[in-house]
């Protein structure tokens, strides 16, 4: 499949570099040098994945991520010079699936783009053909529609949050390490991905738990990883 990738970045050298490497992998590249044009392209054209800078004119990457999430659940990868944990937490919290900092290795970008496309389109299709519903306590995850319900209330999930929750709910009580979770949803694990995984787990708890500081469902097994339980 000839995937279309939107690159929103105001640095022409980076756009050219990403276009060169991504095009060589067979992807069709659409580019914009500001957030407003990127949003317009995403609304007018079927885009399969977006790579976004944060510091852009007219609309920054955070606002663009938020706007994209209102109309699409496509994979979003943030690529930014802003490298503080607070920046990453904000980007992931707004709905991005991944966050990389500049300077970057183009080969790592390729690996992460491939993994994001695979987990969203290929693995997502597989999930839809398996058991339609996963139930743990008050949670019901419909894998045919990729929607989550808690006590008849729908809870919105990002694609990455859905993948994590589906993995855990398929095996209640089983402990998954951070590496196992990340490799399952992302295809490849990098040493700097620990904080990213912790942010995704934290955001899931905010959505699922009555008291995220004392979680009922997603529990930390100290020194090992995470598991989901149906009861306290």
What is the number of helical segments per DSSP (H or I, 4+ residues)?
8
Radius of gyration: 18 Å
Tell me about the largest β-sheet.
5 strands, parallel
At CATH level 3, the topology of the largest domain is Rossmann fold
In short:
The chain has 232 residues and is α/β, with parallel strands linked by helices.
Write the layout of secondary structure elements.
Elements: E1 4-8, H1 12-24, E2 28-32, H2 35-44, E3 49-52, H3 61-71, E4 76-80, H4 85-93, E5 98-101, H5 106-129, E6 133-136, E7 139-142, E8 147-150, E9 153-155, H6 159-170, H7 178-186, H8 194-208, E10 218-221, E11 225-228
Would you mind describing this structure in some detail?
It is built from 8 helices and 11 strands. The protein has 232 residues and is α/β, with parallel strands linked by helices. It folds into 2 domains: 4-121, Rossmann fold (3-Layer(aba) Sandwich); 130-228, Winged helix-like DNA-binding domain superfamily/Winged helix DNA-binding domain (Arc Repressor Mutant, subunit A), CATH 1.10.10. It has a 5-stranded parallel β-sheet with strand order 2-1-3-4-5, with helices on both faces. The protein has a 4-stranded antiparallel β-sheet with strand order 6-7-8-9, with helices on one face. The longest helix has 24 residues, at 106-129. It is globular and about 50 Å long. The chain starts with a strand and ends with a strand.
């Amino acid at each position: 499949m000839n995937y279309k990738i939107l690159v929103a970045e105001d640095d022409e050298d980076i756009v050219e570099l990403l276009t060169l490497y991504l095009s060589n992998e067979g992807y069709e590249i659409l580019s914009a040098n500001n957030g407003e044009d990127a949003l317009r392209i995403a609304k007018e054209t079927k885009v399969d994945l977006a790579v976004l800078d944060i510091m852009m004119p007219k609309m920054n990457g955070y606002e663009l991520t938020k706007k994209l999430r209102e109309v699409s659940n496509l994979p979003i990868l943030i690529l930014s010079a802003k490298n503080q944990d607070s920046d990453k937490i904000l980007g992931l919290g707004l709905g991005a699936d991944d966050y990389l900092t500049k300077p970057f290795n183009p080969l790592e970008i390729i690996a992460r783009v491939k993994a994001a496309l695979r987990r969203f389109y290929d693995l997502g299709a597989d999930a839809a053909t398996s058991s339609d519903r996963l139930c743990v306590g008050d949670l019901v995850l419909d894998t045919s529609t990729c929607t989550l319900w808690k006590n008849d209330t729908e809870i919105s999930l990002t694609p990455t949050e859905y993948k994590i929750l589906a993995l855990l709910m398929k095996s209640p009580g089983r402990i998954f390490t951070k590496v196992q979770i990340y490799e399952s949803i992302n295809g490849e694990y990098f040493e700097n991905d620990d904080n990213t995984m912790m942010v995704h787990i934290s955001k899931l708890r905010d959505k699922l738990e009555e008291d995220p500081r004392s979680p009922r469902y997603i529990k930390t097994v100290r020194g090992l990883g995470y598991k989901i339980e149906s009861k306290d």
